[in-house]
């Protein structure tokens, strides 16, 4: 009687690369990271046991298969495919082998507990799974949609820097010889409120990769030539004069990128940001909080909400719900109404008249 077939597994070759071994078959995972190799193994098993085909049911299609379709076909068309890839890696590692029919509330809640991260992060990752399922359904790979139970949406973040904190952050970045590029990043974010992922792509000339600045006309184009607009709006805006002066000076170094390290585009500034935060002594602030800061400062200076919506690419609803309480004019209008002398109806001859009630000696 033949020996039972061993389950598929991963092993590492002397070169450091992990391989999938399945009976007599071997397949490279293309990675030297064990966690990534195990995620690749989950995708391999899911595809082997449940091959992708059009018209699959939720019993036949696995989480890994749905995410694979989404990553291969849709992710390359978005502005930040790395975000989808990051979420996919986590999802496949924990849920990849499950069929879509098993994705219910308890499974989603258990996923959140297993991840051990914030509710907002779990919601984003499960949101990628929901988007992948919707895509498979719309493209005909899945015969019926599946609803993913998302955790409650967290309250909007209300962290913004004071002017003293912003000055300390700039001072800390300037004092670090390895993080001078962070100064430019911070100044652009504070003067324009541009989204954090768009700033590193800014160039001095029109391109299809990302945004660019026209220093002769003083205009910032937040997205590249031919790039379609998305839900996260990126309007073209005039560059504030203080920042424009900085940019004209920065252009003299000859780099094509506005924010760069030795002429090359900056990838991630996580390390430089963490160092600046530690040196400045600022607690609990992220790079996205620079955008919050720019919008908050603008409203505190009395910028009209309609103008703020157009300049920062924020909907009026978001301005109202997230930033509305920072608008002093909104509070002043409410105060004027509360301080106004209250009219009360009184009976006159044959008709109602209004008289003001005044309280003396209180």
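Q: What amino acid sequence fits the structure above?
A:
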């Amino acid at each position: 009687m033949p020996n039972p077939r061993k389950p598929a597994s991963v092993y590492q070759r002397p070169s450091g690369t992990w391989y999938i071994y399945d009976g007599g078959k071997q397949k490279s995972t293309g990675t030297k990271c064990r966690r990534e190799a195990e995620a690749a193994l989950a995708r391999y098993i899911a595809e082997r046991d449940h091959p992708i085909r059009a018209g699959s049911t939720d019993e036949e299609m696995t989480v890994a298969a749905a995410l694979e379709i989404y990553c291969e076909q849709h992710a390359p068309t978005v502005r930040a495919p790395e975000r989808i890839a990051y979420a996919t890696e986590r999802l496949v590692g924990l849920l990849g082998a499950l069929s879509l029919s098993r994705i219910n509330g308890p499974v989603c809640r258990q996923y959140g507990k297993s991840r051990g991260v914030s509710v907002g992060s779990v919601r984003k990752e499960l949101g990628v799974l929901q988007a992948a399922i919707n895509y498979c359904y719309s493209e005909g790979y899945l015969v019926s949609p599946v609803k993913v139970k998302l955790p409650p949406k967290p309250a909007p973040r209300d962290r913004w820097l004071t002017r003293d904190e912003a000055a300390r952050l700039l001072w800390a970045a300037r004092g670090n010889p390895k993080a001078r590029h962070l100064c430019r990043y911070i100044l652009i974010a504070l003067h324009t409120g541009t989204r954090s992922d768009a700033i590193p792509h800014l160039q001095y000339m029109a391109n299809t990769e990302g945004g660019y600045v026209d220093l002769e006309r003083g205009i910032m184009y937040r997205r590249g030539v031919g790039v379609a607009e998305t839900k996260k709006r990126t309007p073209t805006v005039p560059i504030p004069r203080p920042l424009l002066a900085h940019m004209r000076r920065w252009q003299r170094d000859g780099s094509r990128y506005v924010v760069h390290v030795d002429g090359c585009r900056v990838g991630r500034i996580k390390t430089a940001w963490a160092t600046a935060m530690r040196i400045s002594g600022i607690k609990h602030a992220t790079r996205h909080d620079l955008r919050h800061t720019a919008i908050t400062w603008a409203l505190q200076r009395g910028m009209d909400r309609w103008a703020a919506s157009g300049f920062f690419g924020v909907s009026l609803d978001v301005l109202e719900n997230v930033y509305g309480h920072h608008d002093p004019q909104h509070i002043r209008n409410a105060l004027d109404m509360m301080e106004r002398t209250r009219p009360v109806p009184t009976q006159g001859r044959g008709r109602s008249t209004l008289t003001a009630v005044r309280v003396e000696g209180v």
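Q: And what stands out in the fold?
A: The radius of gyration is 28 Å.
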